[in-house]
Amino acid sequence: MSDRRSSMRSDASAAVAPRDPMSKAPRILVVAAVVWRDGRLLFTQRPPGGPIGLQWEFPGGKVERGESPAEALRREIREELGVDAEPHEELGREQHDYPHGTRVDLVFLRCTLSSFEFTPSDEVHAVQWWQPAEVPLAEVLEGDRGFLKRLGANS
């Protein structure tokens, strides 16, 4: 099984000794699919458990060694939602350091999907479409919030 964005996040949140706040964990490159449908954005909800369980996020995941962000996005969407994805232009980048120690560099790519009939994997607890102003920011992964605010999400 490959490391997925959601797997990466849940692995990082596993019960381990607290990280020394002065240490610097390596940054992890993560790609996020920005999928629009009728003015709404696609979100997936992480499974329960850990410090970021049940948080909403853009679908996507960790960029593996040797992959481009676009290649990783195609693989992650196929694994998480069971549909094909076509990545398009980059819409933004964010960096975020989570309190539990994971440090991410996020790349947001506009993406179209072959279908909206999803077959979610076990890494997806739920799927939801929201207009940017409707997104419950407090329930979204912190790393996605800055980008969402630029799209019109309210704080």
Explain what this protein looks like in three dimensions.
- The chain has helices at residues 5-12, 69-81, 142-150, and strands at residues 27-34, 36-37, 40-45, 56-57, 60-62, 85-97, 103-113, 126-130.
- It is of the alpha+beta class and 155 residues long.
- It has one domain (40-150): Nucleoside Triphosphate Pyrophosphohydrolase.
- The strands form two sheets. The protein has a four-stranded mixed β-sheet, with helices on both faces. Strands 2, 3, 4 and 8 form a four-stranded antiparallel β-sheet that branches.
- A hairpin with a 2-residue loop joins strand 2 and strand 3 (40-45).
- The longest helix is centred in the middle third of the chain and has 13 residues, at 69-81.
- It is globular.
- The model is unreliable at 1-22 (pLDDT under 50).
Short description:
The protein has one domain (40-150): Nucleoside Triphosphate Pyrophosphohydrolase.
SSE inventory with pairings:
Elements: H1 5-12, E1 27-34, E2 36-37, E3 40-45, E4 56-57, E5 60-62, H2 69-81, E6 85-97, E7 103-113, E8 126-130, H3 142-150
Parallel strand pairs: 1-7
Antiparallel strand pairs: 1-5, 2-3, 3-4, 3-8, 6-7
Task: Identify the notable features of this structure and list them briefly.
Nucleoside Triphosphate Pyrophosphohydrolase, globular, alpha+beta, four-stranded mixed beta sheet
